[in-house]
Design goal:
The complex is a heterotrimer of chains A (about 300), B (about 450) and C (about 300).
Chain A (H helix, E strand, L loop, with lengths): L1 H5 L10 E2 L9 E2 L11 H25 L3 H5 L11 H11 L2 H32 L5 H11 L4 H15 L6 H4 L6 H14 L2 H9 L4 H30 L2 H6 L7 H6 L10 H23 L14
Antiparallel strand pairs in A: 1-2
Chain B lengths: L1 H30 L17 E8 L12 H8 L3 E8 L2 H14 L6 E5 H7 L2 H4 L18 H6 L10 E13 H6 L6 H8 L3 H13 L6 E3 L2 H10 L18 H15 L14 H8 L2 E7 L2 H9 L7 E4 L6 E8 L7 H11 L2 H11 L2 E2 L2 H5 L1 H4 L13 H11 L9 H19 L3 H16 L2
Parallel strand pairs in B: 1-2, 1-3, 5-6
Antiparallel strand pairs in B: 3-8, 4-6, 4-7, 4-8, 4-9
Helix pairs in contact in B: 10-11, 10-19, 11-19, 12-13, 19-20
Chain C lengths: L8 H40 L2 E2 L9 E2 L3 H7 L2 H32 L6 H13 L2 H11 L6 H8 L11 H29 L3 H9 L4 H12 L1 H16 L3 H7 L15 H12 L2 H33 L2
Antiparallel strand pairs in C: 1-2
Helix pairs in contact in C: 1-13, 3-7, 3-10, 4-7, 5-11, 10-13, 12-13
The chains are: A mainly alpha (about 300), B alpha/beta (about 450), C mainly alpha (about 300).
């Protein structure tokens, strides 16, 4: 029986086809592999269109960030990058401590993403596959907490962090975001469809306790969802403005807080500098996408056990 | 027991993961400079302290693009280091400042307050959080132009802020468009066209329209016109007790009627000042209007938005009636660690000599009387405007001295936004009739202010 | 399943403890953090909604009972915001989810540059909303925007995207759709990756076309995830805030000069932050919460009924 659990260890995630271990198991393969048709020209046409529409504002950010303020507010609007990128970058770094902001945001969004993904997977697994008293009621509460509008709760939240002495410190933005109802609900829905109950039961029968099941059964299957959740939460945390702006200051800012201190010119906002700072704030996210995006390919154990 | 071996490893990794988070968190807290916020040393004299000044937009104090007042003060006081906590957007700044004041946390040693919010700040809830300058040595209300410190005075006579700049308002106009429309172009003659009465300004607009170059409106926006007219009125939104009386205020009625008339006659370019989509700023360059009400801080805007190609086409004339539009105060929260030092610094920043330096660098008109009278201000000209450089010092200081103070109230800003953005702009953009627009305004004021 | 006997002795007790207690241990972090940072604000907001209290005021304000709620009943701006929230929610959510489903299906193909496409569709979610708004505002500019220029060629003239109610709502939902389609597509993609391959093989053997397979295999298999996105999008639509605020610029908080596109969240923000009437704003927040709970309950019932009908 130990073999059975063995055969779903995460190492298999790389090898797209794991050899069948026992007669009870059938071929295990990358979730997509069997069904993945090659994309036809129409698929490519649609995707290229979608990519263009998606990327254009980002491209325009590059254009605007490399012109002067006057250039970009005057019709005709420029469509090609200009030569002022370095000048604008200098102004950004002159006006705010962007280096510190980038480091802070990496710490905040990284911690929040890791913790949210971890706790959401644990809770999502419990809600999806484990029997316990009050499960449905508790799940309903989780979903209900998502409905709380954020624009008002900052006022009492600020009272909490004042009492705790965290104003201006990064924990004021990290701690309230360590978990997300959205993540728990997402993982619960994903695992309820993707994780065959037989795998869990088999491991149980094998005597594995639940942490071991999580490590060897749940995590490998949840990997694409964990990667997607990680990306979404990282971006959300990175782009969060309203609360960090109130809790932090320009002395210890996240990127979005720093952005609020950028662009003050002589009695008017310098849009080119603002957009340039926004570009600086966006690039690290694309890097995170590129790294985590690779993890979405997989789903090794889908349908691993015959029912 | 392979199982338990594996388990232990799993557990170790999980714990290590959590520990990393924990280290990161504690790491960042000890890393935070905010420990130093207003407290990087003992306050006993001679020891190193850091003063934080919170402001918005541009005050022109900083060492990079401003008048380098921070480094100058640091030279005069070697034990003091100045850190500016700047936010571009004044509304965002004020929103979070209110919450910070309520909880007495996250405050800087000095907080700037814009004139649009000062009436809120002098209400008992907030006023009690600030140092009363009346009790501060060396402070004299009469150092400022008459209406300035009055605005920062609470009903029980406390003064919670020292005045930085003011915004005496003139009229910027395009000489080329005026010429094409058969109007005079010399500032004195132009001022004579509308001297003493804003309704004459609208009449000039009608003359302009009759012979206007195509696609050029007389003035940029009804909202701008309304603000300029109202700021010259002695009765505005509130009465002496701070109670809203906008509905029966003759000043509001005058400003509303003139603006509504300008819209009806098609004299406005239907733009929204400072709109986020830049239509307004773009319209300077493309020449969509011939006049704009010009508070002193607006001339930089006019020049930058119009661009070098339009240099010499704009000029500045005295307004029909003198009014003030804009300006700020510096206030010192009582809960700071270095209240005495912060108070002294705020007084220094707003003393005549420093306000003159900021004017020379940034064009902010001093609210300090001695600063306003300084030859450096009086004789200042601006090359972008007029044929031989417009005498902006003369124009703005003349206006500044002619301004009559008007009572203000805490809800003025709310009503102003509703009138200009939901009333007049709605008329301009959607063709709403003046009567309907006014009843909309009243309904919205009732909803927001509850009166 | 039980091919071996349960372990005996202390191990067995430990085992039973594990099955009993571990679910609670796994959900505990969520509830602990929620109790610390979510519950108090929620209750406090409810308490504020029963008071007349202003932002910046220390102390509790005056008790007014349910006045803040009852006054919403005959408040034209509240009803307008409620209607706008509903219409904006529908026109921004429905096309968005359908497009996301299609996009995810395409992204699930074996593709060249698959990684690039996946990153590209998520780019709108990462792009600074202020920068994106600048672009969209240019596109929708009634005087010289590209969209009106194009429409002019096909005989439609002078649509006021900034001030007319429906055009403005359409423009805003275009921004919402642009921002969130890729986000939902990736969520669907993750779920599609977990659909067992043999289901497709079986369907293919039965001669089902790709479209047929999409309808009869993919969609039913990822139903819980679709349910998830519907719930989350409904909540997101009810709390719609950033896009109309930035699209409106100076008239953002009031959702246009005549409140043409003011949502409930904007109305609440306008009351709470711009005007400082915390009690009234809190009442709006709680009304939003109750509306969402009602919608949620309705959705849950519909889903249950569906599942029963499909025998799933």
């Amino acid at each position: 029986m130990a073999q059975l659990t063995e055969s779903v260890k995460p190492a298999d995630a790389r090898g797209r086809t794991a050899p069948p271990r026992t007669a009870r198991r059938r071929k295990v393969r990358a979730g997509g592999a069997g069904k993945q048709h090659n994309g036809g020209p129409i698929a490519y046409a649609f995707l290229i269109l979608a990519a263009l529409v998606s990327l254009f504002p980002l491209y325009w950010t590059v254009v605007a960030a490399s012109h002067t303020d006057t250039d970009i507010v005057t019709p005709p609007t420029p469509l090609l990058p200009g030569s002022h990128l370095i000048d604008n970058l200098k102004i950004v770094w002159d006006q705010v401590d962007m280096t510190k902001a980038l480091v802070n945001s990496t710490i905040v969004a990284g911690t929040v993403a890791i913790s949210t993904v971890l706790f959401a997977t644990l809770a999502g697994f419990a809600f999806a596959k484990l029997e316990f008293r009050g499960r449905n009621a508790l799940l309903t509460i989780v979903v209900a907490t998502m409905t709380v509008p954020p624009q008002l709760t900052v006022i009492p939240l600020y009272q909490i962090i004042t009492d705790a002495g965290w104003v201006g410190h990064l924990q004021s933005v990290i701690l309230p975001s360590l978990v997300a109802a959205f993540g728990v609900f997402f993982m619960r829905q994903f695992l309820s469809e993707a994780l065959p109950i037989e795998l869990v039961e088999a491991a149980r029968v094998d005597g594995a306790h639940s942490l071991r099941i999580i490590w060897h059964v749940v995590f490998p299957i949840a990997r694409p969802a964990m990667a997607v959740l990680g990306m979404l939460v990282f971006v959300q945390s990175w782009n969060d403005f309203f609360w960090p702006f109130i809790a932090l200051s320009q002395q210890n800012p996240t990127v979005q807080v720093a952005l609020a201190g950028v662009g003050s010119g002589n009695h008017q906002i310098d849009h080119a500098v603002v957009v340039c700072a926004a570009l600086v704030a966006t690039l690290p996210l694309l890097l995170v996408f590129a790294v985590l995006g690779k993890q979405i390919v997989s789903g090794i154990t889908a349908g691993a056990v015959k029912s | 027991m392979r199982t338990s071996g594996r388990t232990r490893r799993t557990a170790v990794i999980a714990v290590a993961g959590l520990a990393t988070c924990a280290t990161l968190i504690t790491g960042c807290s000890s890393d935070s400079k905010d420990d130093a916020k207003g407290d990087s040393g003992k306050s006993s004299s001679g020891e190193q302290i850091t003063l934080h000044i919170g402001d918005f937009g541009s005050f022109g104090y900083d060492d990079k693009t401003g008048a380098k007042l921070f480094s100058e003060y640091e030279r005069l006081h070697p034990n003091i280091k100045i850190v500016e906590d700047n936010v571009s957007d004044g509304q965002q700044y004020w929103d979070s400042l209110k919450l910070h004041l309520q909880q007495n946390s996250g405050l800087d040693d000095i907080q700037a307050i814009e004139i649009g919010y000062i009436a809120e700040a002098i209400q008992p809830n907030l006023a009690s959080k600030f140092v009363d300058f009346k009790t501060v040595k060396g402070f004299n209300v009469d150092d400022w132009v008459s209406y300035k410190e009055k605005e920062a005075t609470t009903s029980d006579g406390k003064v919670i802020g020292v005045g930085t700049d003011i915004g005496p308002t003139a009229i910027c106009y395009r000489t080329d468009f005026f010429k094409q429309a058969g109007l005079p172009t010399d500032p004195a003659q132009v001022a004579a066209l509308w001297n003493g009465d804003w309704s004459k300004f609208v009449s000039v607009g009608e003359q302009f329209k009759a012979k206007a170059p195509s696609g050029v409106a007389f003035t940029d926006s009804a909202g701008g016109l309304f603000n300029a007219v109202l700021s010259s009125q002695s009765a505005q939104y509130s009465d002496e007790s701070g109670k809203l009386v906008y509905d029966s205020s003759p000043g509001v009625q005058t400003a509303w009627n003139l603006s509504a008339k300008a819209i009806k006659e098609g004299l406005t370019a239907k733009l929204q000042q400072f709109d986020s989509n830049n239509t307004w700023s773009a319209a300077f360059k493309t020449g969509k209007f011939a006049t704009v009400a010009c508070p002193s801080w607006m001339i930089g805007q006019v020049a930058a938005n119009s661009g070098p190609a339009n240099k010499g086409k704009w000029d500045i004339a005295q307004p029909p009636q003198a009014g003030n539009w804009g300006g700020s105060f510096l206030a010192v929260p009582k809960s700071g660690k270095h209240v005495a030092e912060a108070t002294a610094f705020a007084q220094w920043l707003t003393a005549a000599a420093q306000e003159v330096k900021v004017f020379q660098k940034f064009g902010n008109i001093p609210s300090n009387k001695a600063g306003l009278a300084d030859p450096a201000v009086q004789n200042a000209t601006n090359d972008y405007f007029g044929t031989a450089g417009a005498p902006i010092g003369k124009i703005f200081s003349t206006t500044a001295n002619a301004i009559q103070p008007a009572p203000i109230g805490p809800k003025d800003g709310t009503v102003k936004d509703i009138i200009t953005k939901n009333g007049l702009l709605d008329m301009e953009q959607r063709g709403t009739s003046a009567d309907k627009a006014w009843s909309n305004v009243k309904a919205q004021v009732k909803d927001k202010v509850g009166e | 399943m039980a091919t071996s006997a349960p372990p005996a002795g202390w191990r067995s007790r430990l085992y039973r403890l594990d099955t009993k207690a571990s679910p609670y241990a796994y959900i505990a972090p969520f509830f602990l953090v929620f109790a610390a940072f979510g519950l108090f604000p929620l209750i406090y907001t409810g308490w504020l909604s029963l008071h007349h209290v202003e932002l910046g005021q220390s102390g509790s304000g005056t008790w007014v009972g349910f006045d803040n709620y009852t006054s919403l009943w005959d408040n034209q701006f509240f009803w307008k915001a409620l209607r706008n929230t509903f219409t904006l929610g529908v026109i921004s959510t429905v096309p968005q989810l359908l497009m996301a489903l299609g996009l995810a299906h395409l992204l699930n193909y074996k593709l060249r540059a698959r990684g690039f496409f996946r990153v590209a569709v998520l780019a709108p979610y990462a792009t600074s909303i202020a920068a994106a708004a600048l672009v969209f505002v240019q596109l929708f500019n009634p005087d010289y925007g590209m969209i009106n220029q194009f429409l002019g060629h096909v005989g439609v003239h002078d649509i006021r995207w900034d001030s007319s109610k429906w055009p403005a709502q359409i423009a805003i939902s275009a921004i919402v759709t642009w921002r969130w389609t890729g986000y939902n597509a990736l969520i669907y993609l993750a779920a599609m990756q977990a659909v067992p391959a043999d289901l497709y093989e079986a369907a293919a053997l039965d001669g089902a076309s790709r479209w047929r397979q999409f309808l009869s295999v993919t969609i039913p298999s990822i139903r819980p995830t679709i349910f998830f996105t519907i719930i989350v999008s409904t909540i997101g639509a009810t709390q719609l805030f950033g896009e109309p605020l930035i699209y409106g610029g100076g008239v953002g908080p009031t959702g246009g000069t005549d409140h043409q596109y003011q949502t409930l969240s904007l109305y609440m923000y306008d009351k709470g932050w711009q005007v400082g009437q915390l009690g009234q704003a809190s009442a709006v927040a709680w009304v939003m919460l109750l509306i969402l709970l009602l919608i949620g309950a309705a959705q849950l019932l519909v889903m249950r009924a569906n599942r029963r009908k499909l025998g799933g």
